[in-house]
Amino acid sequence: MKVPVNFAIAAVIVSCSLQTASGAALVDTAASSAAKCCGIIEKAFPQKTYSSSDQKNLYQQFVESYFSVNDRLEPTCVVSPANTKDVSSIVALLSKNSCQFAIKSGGHGILTASSNIRKGVTVDLRGMRKVTLNKQKKMATVQPGAKWIDVYEYLDPQGWAIPGGRAGDVGVGGGNSFFAARYGFACDNVVTFEVVLGDGSIVQASNTTNPDLFTALKGSQNNLGVITKFEFVAFEQSLLWGGTALYDKKTIPAQIQAFNDFTENIAKEPYGSLIYVWSYFSATKQISIQNLYEYTANLTGPVTKYPAPFKGFTPDSPIGPPIQNTLREANLSSLTGELNSPANLSNKVSAMQGITRILNEQLQIYKDDTFYTYASVLFQPIPRVFTEHSIERGGNVLGLDRYKDNNVLFQLDLAWNGTQYDAQIRSLADYVMGNLTNYLQGAKALKDWQYLNYAFEDQDPLGGYGPEALNKIKAASKKYDPGQVFQKLVPGGFKLAGAGSGNKYTH
User: Fold this and answer.
1) pTM over 0.85
2) Between the chain's N and C termini, which has fewer beta carbons within 10 Å?
3) Cα–Cα distance between 218 and 213 in angstroms, integer?
4) DSSP state, 2?
5) Closest CA relative to residue 65, chosen from 129, 13, 21
6) CA torsion sign, 260 to 295 to 338 to 189?
7) In a 10 Å sphere around its CB, with 0-12 CB exposed, 13-18 middle and 19+ buried, how is residue 97 labelled?
8) Residue 55 class from Cβ within 10 Å (0-12 exposed, 13-18 middle, 19+ buried)?
């Protein structure tokens, strides 16, 4: 067996729940304070501020624009800045008046109040979504309200790309990428951030200007400031090859071996990107396997056979041909549109076999239940070469640099039929993840790391970065946000006060 690749776990629960307020007195006080804050913001930005009472249709469209029902909260008011100066003034006013607020860009988070707020002001950045390209400098400038599909639809016709996200409907940020084996994570390809700090001041962060802030921004979520502009590395890119291939569950043993081989060889074949998806549908009680392939080399002609990184998945391999597929030559806009539909583990064939066995056993217990519609498990390679590119570009605070081996990201994704089933879904998730954790710990195949973009609210992804990385974020917070605006007044997301308390499903 090859050098094992380790696993990291992140349970993702895309919930349909809306939590209720915990006390009438507290809610009244918060509502009164929020109304006062909205009055201040509306006075300063009368044409850019609205609420449910004065623009009901626009307000409702805003609430429904969030990906997760968890985040479809009803803020006291919404303010929509048009530029960095607006953001600066808004943050300064909110800070000065001790107003609770949230910041929305893409709105794709799964947590309750991750980018929205119940009693407070939501700053909606969607009006700031401009994308520009400087071919001479090989750099693309992107505003924070853009989604990846906006970026790709602008760059595709020009034959250029940036190493950005894999799902077009997600807001611009710093996660995984089809290009990660060549360039690292998306955050590692930011050359400069423009940031509004807690006092409203505007600063630049790069390898040479505020380098400590530059590093800390790459993985710290909303803990340090509001990013108002990204400058990304850009490169010429023709069509890619890729799409989705559907397989019968009998191919699982061969799939696991091929996935392991792909992960171990990705440094030698850096043009490949792979996601392996195991899905169970409660209505049909059927298991299906989907592989998402992407080949990022510049194509010079039609692709007539699977490219080299996917030699273990070819129709004449032990896996055999897919039942159906969407494999084609296409641009990034097309391929990332198809993806609009994690735990950290080592890349052991035996570990993945064990996970598959446990999932089959656990979900069979629930096979006659109808409270959930499907359970999906995604396996994604996180090889060492991703981190090597990160280090080359100045580093980040994800904490993966402390691991010298290849890893696999494991994600559990559940969907269900209504808020009345929230407790049962939570029980199912804990049951499955708890048993998987016990198995992987026993097999010595579990890493103490979780992917923040997939983590659920009672997990500790910032703590999972490790003490050294977490201390960098805390130091940047103390230096650049001395009033702790983004800790005290922006309650959503994973905050620094609770970081390091322990990762659920890894301890």
Assistant:
1) yes
2) N
3) 9
4) P
5) 129
6) positive
7) middle
8) middle
Task: For residue 39, give both structure tokens.
Answer: 């009055």
Q: Residues 95, 224, 458, 450: what is their CA dihedral angle, to the nearest 10 degrees?
A: 170
Report how far residue 269's alpha carbon sits from residue 256's, in angstroms, rounded to the nearest whole number: 18
For residue 447, which phi and psi values (nearest 5 degrees)? -105, 150
CA–CA distance, 286 with 283 (Å, rounded to integer): 8
> What separation, in Å, do the N-terminal and C-terminal C-alpha atoms of the chain show?
27
Q: What is the DSSP letter of 258?
A: H
Rounded to whole angstroms, how far apart are CA atoms 447 and 467? 15
Q: Are 198 and 486 in contact (CB under 8 A)?
A: yes
Q: Would you tell me how many other CB atoms lie within 10 Å of the CB of residue 462? A: 29
Per-residue 3-state assignment (H helix, E strand, C coil) for 435-504: HHHHHHHHCCCECCCCCCCCCCCCCCHHHHCCHHHHHHHHHHHHHHCCCCHHHHCCCCCCCHHHCCCCCC
DSSP line for 183-244: H--GGGGEEEEEEE-TTS-EEEEESSSSHHHHHHHTT-TTSS-EEEEEEEE-EE---EEEEE
Closest of 293, 195, 184 to residue 240, by C-alpha: 293
Q: What is the pLDDT along the chain (507 residues), one digit of tens a residue?
A: 333 344 454 433 332 222 222 333 333 567 779 999 999 999 999 999 999 998 999 999 999 999 888 899 999 999 999 999 999 999 999 999 999 999 999 998 888 899 999 999 999 999 999 999 999 999 999 999 999 999 999 999 999 999 999 999 999 987 899 999 999 999 999 999 999 999 999 999 999 999 999 999 999 999 999 999 999 999 999 999 999 999 999 999 999 999 999 999 999 999 999 999 998 887 778 888 999 999 999 998 899 999 999 999 999 999 999 999 999 999 999 999 887 644 444 546 777 777 777 777 766 666 667 777 888 889 999 999 999 999 999 999 999 999 999 999 989 888 887 778 888 888 888 888 888 889 888 988 899 899 999 888 889 999 999 999 999 999 999 999 999 999 999 999 999 998 998 767 765
CA distances from 204 to 258, 268, 474 (A): 44, 36, 19
Distances (CA, A) of 9 to 218, 278, 412, 413, 459: 20, 15, 8, 12, 10
Q: Amino acid identity of 109?
A: G
List 379's β-bridge partners, or say none: 276, 410
Q: Which helix (H) or strand (E) holds 37?
A: helix 24-44
User: How many residues in total does the chain contain?
Assistant: 507
CA–CA distance, 228 with 83 (Å, rounded to integer): 8
Return the pLDDT at 469: 97
